[in-house]
Amino acid sequence: MKLMNYITNNNSDFVLRTDLNRIASWIKRESSVLDLGCGDGTLLNYLNNNLQTKGVGVELDNRLVIECINKGVRVIQQDLEDGLALFDDKQFDTVILSQTLQSMHHTEHILLEMSRVSNYGIVSFPNFGYWLHGLSILCGRMPVTGQIPYQWYNSPNIHLCTLKDFEELAGSLGLKILERAAFNASQEIKWLINWRTSLALYHFSSS
After folding, report:
1. Mean of the pLDDT values across residues 155-170?
2. pLDDT digits over 45-58, tens only?
3. What's the pTM?
4. What residue numbers bound the domain in which 80 lies?
5. Which of 11, 111, 164, 165 has a C-alpha 20 to 30 A away from that of 194?
6. Which residues does 5 contact at the CB level (< 8 Å), separation at least 6?
């Protein structure tokens, strides 16, 4: 399960989360976008309305699919573990996988498929190297934090990694990292990134 895609202010309006705002900044106006595990469609709705993108989402959950449709977001109901065979090579300018990578069974496959169907990819995931996670393990417990809010026995997260882990994997798959952003809640982290970051974002190219 993902965190909410927006934060509520005193007027009961909403704005995109800080990490989603950064993702939006990496998207070119009027480009084609595929959002994998798009949730309720909040990000795609924002991109379509503010950047005039041609966005398509993939989501499995029935309730979230209905919310996408209610927002006017084009969505395909499919399990990401089945791959992206529905899409042609380089069909999209950018493919997004936001806070879903850690729950995928076939991590390498989904990254390679992202690079196949798009020119650029964006992924975000909780950083298992965050210092509070290490402290929890030293105390004999699996970490439970804002980015990993599950107990060990009911967590959908099966492939947790650190920033360095992801960078090594991306390099081995031929993905070129263009930009990296690191956050702790809504605060962007600029120093001691590997230790102080709870959520990492990467923008990469497929060639």
Report:
1. 82
2. 999 999 999 999 99
3. 0.85
4. 6-205
5. 111
6. 16, 17, 20, 39, 40, 42, 43
